Amino acid sequence: MKPLTFTNDNGDFTICQPESISSLYFPLASEAGLKSAISPNLGGDAKINQEHFLLEPVSVDNLHNNRSTRNFWVKTTDGKFASITGTSASQEAQKFSETQEKSRIHAGFMWHQLERELSDLNLKATTTSFVPTNETFEFMLVSITNTATTPQELTATAAIPIFGRSADNLRDHRNVTSMLHRIRTDKAGIYVTPTMSFDERGHRLNHQTYYVMGFDDVGNTPKTFFPTVESFIGEGGSFTHPRSLFENETGVTAGYTCDGREAMGAFRFETFNVAPNETKNFILLLGISDGEQTIDRIKNTYNSLEIVQTALKETKTYWQDKVSVNFKTADTDFNRFMKWVCFQPYLRRIFGCSFLPHHDYGRGGRGWRDLWQDCLSLLLMEPKDVGEMIVNNFKGVRLDGTNATIIGEKQGEFLADRNGISRVWMDHALWPLMTTKLYIDQTGDISILNKQVSYFKDPHIKRGTAFDSLWNDEYGNQQRTTTDDIYTGSILEHLLIQHLTGFYEVGQHNIYRLRGADWNDALDMANENGESVAFTAAYSGNLMELASLIRLLENKTGIESVEILEEIGLLLKNDTEIYNQIDRKHQILEVYTKNCQHKVNGNKLKMSLSEISLNLIQKANWLRHSLQEREWIDFNDEEGWYNSYYDNNGKATDGYYNDRQHMMLTGQVFSIMNYVATENQIKKITTSADRYLYRKEIGGYRLNTDFKEIKTDLGRMFGFAYGEKENGAVFSHMTVMYANALYRRGFVKEGWKALKSLADTSLNFETSRIYPGIPEYFRADGHGVYHYLTGAASWYMLTMVTEVFGVQGKTGDLILYPKLLAEQFDENGKASIVAQFAGKTLEITYDNPNRKEFGQYVITSAVCDEEQLPITDDTFAFITKEKLQSLDESNHHITITLQ
């Protein structure tokens, strides 16, 4: 039997003895703001943001030894104790022995249940944890069942340490900040309201209250309280052997107050009796609130077993309904795995790029790429409000083509970087266009390009190479004109600026400069002379896509010209001789950024759309040809690949030197995806990648070969051990993009190999050691690392929907062009998907009765609700935007027959 098994098609799963596996954790959260992580022994933490942690912050590397966490104790009349989490001193002593207690985890979207047999006490404990969808507290429903043949008299004690402050205070002023605590008890629980948030840059009054409340299943509240760590563990005691329990201390009553101590959410309930097979339930609420009224509401609402069970049911339903995409292939485990992949983008929206134990870097929030890549998944599951999100996201673009890197809590809110860090990631201009194009294809809303949006402004100017001495806080964070009005331009103008400025910012090889890094943040030590061949290829494709959208805008709207900022005309010169002149490119960029460094006159220049489109096509074609001529490395008749980067000394990263082959996956992905690589070159790339990068047993395609040197002229990644993170790990995001690129170019078997290797390794629990889903990467031994919060999930889902199942939008029309392999159809020759498109729920079934291979079958019939659909060239079926709009709100069934 597999260690981890799915229990239904919703993706719910179970695993036995999970505490025997290191580094496991599970996300619990609500859209109201609480973000929790929970381990198999109910470790982990809970917080709203960096400043407000309810439970002590944890990293994956101290999960195994942290005891300052959720616990609940049971005591018998003969003095035996047990922790329902297995974290008493005596229970831990039994670990890995024949007397180790049996335990099991059951879990699904945003709910987690721990079962433990407390064998020494003849009890079974079940603890269900979840966060209600619209609340900022976490439920612990503890159920104690008597497995003995005789009645038992028991005493139960909740024990949850309350951290109650900023994660910065985990070490910085830990003792001092405890002095800010104001602790009190009432009949329902323990409350901690610090007087202020400690920050030597400026202390602030605190308005948050951290609490732990408790009830039994008939509404009874605790009998006695232990509101400080000292009172609970006692002198010389510990969280695994608390003296207050073992010495049966009385504690304090409701109405007690205490100041300036480490707080403890510990309280004891009245002794109770349980008959054989009878269950006693306890309800614990762990939360953060900004007012007494909210706490009173919660206390008076969630105090019965029936209400908790109803809230649990609602929470399960809410998150299941969110994941509106469903896959059915021959592999049932893969289908269920995909439920978690589709759920992961929601987790990243809530948790950002931090706030889970592996993601212990940074201070929370999302980055620029996250804003755009998360929209990809939303367009496939919740497309309704994505258009507005896209418009607001463009407010982060500067007039010099760079963008804000500090993102506020509100949609469209970007903050000035006052730390003086002029960090420019050269890939950032790529993602907005990719997301906007998908939006237009899914909705047909080409007019979004005409939406007027402001620009971001802070002291960083001239693409991060200088500071605007005239800027201050009073200026605000929006670009202004010389008349002090907020300047706005169309989204098309924003896209043009982003792509044209990059075209002129090149290094000594006439390749786009790497700057602070590209997608690979660890390439951060080549700011002066580094160049990114990989993303130059990506931008060549983007320029061609932007030209295509401009032509579409002209055809669909009848608009022949647009007004753009006068200064942009300099970047749209038709002199193609400039393309090979590096110094001239730099001069043009210098003049443009100088003209935009503080305020602009706001004058507009009218240009024809066809002229702009032609200009972009010329630039794209020049880039493609240049890359093909200068960056392709042809080793022999079977092998070859593209160079990916130039380091700070101007040396190419890929090729043959130091007696070994050097290959990086990133350069291949974007060369394939953006039609730089020819079909013959793709064949050589895939052969080379399979030989030098592929390791099936650890997830598939490594990010790079082992350079065996610490390249301080390129980035910190080369200081990492080989096979870890950016240095040669199987990095899921780039592997998925490799698969996506191969599918786009018709290399379906090769693309599926990349996708399936990631899925197989994720599902191989003995290797991956993770719950279902896709991690950021697999390390050298195949363990999944940095789970849940990765853009790979959005791209994996996008690839499965639009490429594998071929459910694609084309300016609002629906195109059905499957690229399923024979092995993906079930024994009846069927594969299906439930997907959202144009606000409709579509159940699409591909019927391949002879289980033919991709490339051998054609579409012979396409039916939607018993009505025949048009088929083009036996290749794809389609439904027009107008036809989709005429469909009602019920589910619609489409059957495509393949012969």
TrEMBL record:
Which InterPro entries does this chain map to? 6-hairpin_glycosidase_sf, 6hp_glycosidase-like_sf, Gal_mutarotase_sf_dom, GH65_N, GH94_catalytic, GH94_Enzymes, Glyco_hydrolase_94_b-supersand
Instruction: Report the residue ranges that make up the Glycosyl hydrolase 94 supersandwich domain in this protein.
Output: 67-303
Pfam families registered for this protein in UniProt: GH94_b-supersand, Glyco_hydro_94
Alphabetized UniProt keyword annotations: Glycosyltransferase, Hydrolase, Transferase
What residue stretches are annotated with the Glycosyl hydrolase 94 catalytic domain?
Answer: 318-468, 618-806
Q: Which GO terms describe its molecular function?
A: hydrolase activity
Name of protein? GH36-type glycosyl hydrolase domain-containing protein
